[in-house]
Write a structure and sequence with these properties.
Blueprint lengths: L4 E12 L2 E12 L3 E5 L6 H8 L7 E6 L2 E2 L5 H8 L2 E4 L11 H12 L4 H14 L15 H12 L6 E5 L7 H18 L2 E5 L3 H7 L2 E6 L4 E6 L1 H7 L3 H8 L9
Helix pairs in contact: 3-4, 3-5, 4-5, 6-7, 8-9
C-alpha cells in the first residue's frame, strides 16, 4: 500500500455557533487504504465527515484532499475537487421518484458533457460493480435496505472518485447483509484502488475492512486514539477506547 497521503487534516477545530465539537484534529489518510472514523453518539465523527466533504467550514485548520485545500478552494477548483470524492450517506439519500439507474445517471449528467448513451453505459457499469444490474429500473422503495446501500455506493462511484466517504454503511442492516456489504467494500478497494473513509461504530465491520482508524470522544472533544483496530482493542491504555472495542459499560466511581 502506498504511504503517500491523499487526505491531510491539520489542526482542525469544528463547531456550530459558539459550541466547539472537536479541537485540534490532525491526521492523514493514505492513498488506497480503508480508514475508519469511530466514536460514540455525539462524539463529532459525523461533524468531521461533513467538514471533510465540504459541507462544514472549520473554525480553523486545513483539510487537503489530493493536495487541494477543501477550505479555501472556490469556483472551478472546488468543483474539480468535489468530483474527486464520492459520498454515500447513511440513509442512502436516493431520489424516490427516480429509478435506481436514473439516480446513478444524475451526477454524470450534472458534472460531465458525455452523450446520453455513454452516461447510461457508465451508470450500468457502476450498478454491475455493486451487484445491482438487475435492479436498474426499479424504484428505491422496491429495494431492500442492503440494496439501497449498494445503490448509494454505485451513485457515489459514478464520477470515478479517488476517495469514497461512507456514513454508517452498515446501520440498520442484519448481520448477513452487513457482512456482504463489507465484502463489497473490500472488493471495490482491491479492484479499483479507491481510498475509503468510513464513519461507523459497527465492530464487526471495523475489524473486517479497516486498515486504520481514529477515535474521537465527546468529553475530550478531540482524537483519543489512532491506529490499527486490533492493536487499539488489545493494547490501548485509554479506558474509553478499551470500553468501545470491548463493548464494556463504564464502571461507576463508587463501585
Amino acid at each position: 500500500m502506498a504511504e503517500e497521503p491523499i487526505i491531510e487534516v491539520k489542526d482542525v477545530t469544528l463547531g456550530y455557533d459558539d459550541t466547539v465539537v472537536l479541537e485540534d484534529v490532525s491526521f492523514e489518510v493514505r492513498m488506497g487504504e480503508i480508514f475508519g472514523i469511530l466514536g460514540g453518539s455525539g462524539s463529532g465523527k459525523s461533524t468531521l465527515l461533513k467538514a471533510m466533504i465540504g459541507l462544514l467550514t472549520p473554525v480553523r485548520g486545513t483539510i487537503r484532499i489530493d493536495g487541494i485545500d477543501m477550505v479555501t478552494a472556490a469556483g472551478a477548483a472546488r468543483q474539480a475537487l468535489l468530483a474527486k470524492i464520492g459520498v454515500a450517506y447513511q440513509s442512502g439519500a436516493l431520489f424516490g421518484s427516480m429509478t435506481v439507474l436514473s439516480n446513478i445517471v444524475l451526477p454524470l449528467e450534472e458534472f460531465t458533457d458525455l452523450p446520453a448513451e455513454a452516461i447510461e453505459r457508465i451508470a450500468q457499469t457502476k450498478l454491475k460493480a455493486v451487484g445491482l444490474q438487475a435492479a436498474a429500473y426499479k424504484m428505491p422503495a422496491e429495494l431492500s435496505g442492503g440494496m439501497r446501500k449498494r445503490a448509494a455506493i454505485a451513485r457515489a462511484l459514478a464520477l470515478d472518485p479517488k476517495v469514497l466517504f461512507l456514513d454508517e454503511p452498515s446501520a440498520g442492516l442484519d448481520p448477513v447483509t452487513s457482512a456482504q456489504l463489507d465484502e463489497l467494500i473490500l472488493g471495490l478497494s482491491q479492484e479499483l484502488g479507491i481510498t475509503f473513509v468510513i464513519v461507523t461504530h459497527e465492530l464487526p465491520s471495523i475489524f473486517a475492512v479497516t486498515d486504520r482508524v481514529l477515535m474521537v470522544d465527546k468529553e475530550a472533544r478531540r482524537v483519543i486514539a489512532e491506529g490499527q483496530p486490533q492493536a487499539l482493542r488489545d493494547h490501548s491504555d485509554n479506558p474509553v477506547v478499551r470500553r468501545f472495542f470491548r463493548r464494556e459499560l463504564a464502571v461507576a466511581a463508587s463501585d
